[in-house]
Amino acid sequence: MIEHPKAEELVEAVARWIDSVRPQLAPRDAFLARVAANALGVVKRELQQGAAAEAAAVERLSAVLGRGGTLSELNADLCARLRAGEMDAATPGLLAALRANITEQIAIDQPSYAPEPG
């Protein structure tokens, strides 16, 4: 199996190249290049942190819901229980689990955003 370059390294190389040519571009193209470079940053962080964040989210939701499953299954179950009124903000551990899940997702999607402490 080929070990290098890894996906994260390839993504980083393309993002750096985009950043290096961006100053020479027309304003609209420079903006679109910046958007592309930012998107690659999200992909890189997803590759680096996504699996651990998802595993932690599954663990937290499993504890709150009292059952296992995939993240998609647990989210669907949570939504169904919220709609049915079986769970709400007063459900023990729910808000803490949701806050932790979204904080980890923000670290991937928008790492410069600093969520309010809570």
Can you offer a commentary on this structure?
The protein has 118 residues and is an all-alpha fold. The protein has one domain (7-109). 71% of the residues lie in helices and 0% in strands. It is built from four helices and no strands. α2 (27-65) packs across α3 and α2 runs antiparallel to α4 (94-109). The termini are far apart.
Helix content: over 70%
Q: How many angstroms does the end-to-end distance come to? A: 45 Å
Domain count: the total is 1
Order of helices and strands: HHHH
**Unreliable stretches covering 5 or more consecutive residues:** none
Major beta sheet summary? none
**DSSP summary: helix tally:** 4
Tally of strands: 0
> What is the SS-derived class?
mainly alpha
Mean pLDDT: 94
Work out the oligomeric state of the chains in this entry: single chain
What share of residues are in beta strands? under 5%
Provide the gyration radius in Å: 19 Å
Which geometry do the CA atoms define? elongated
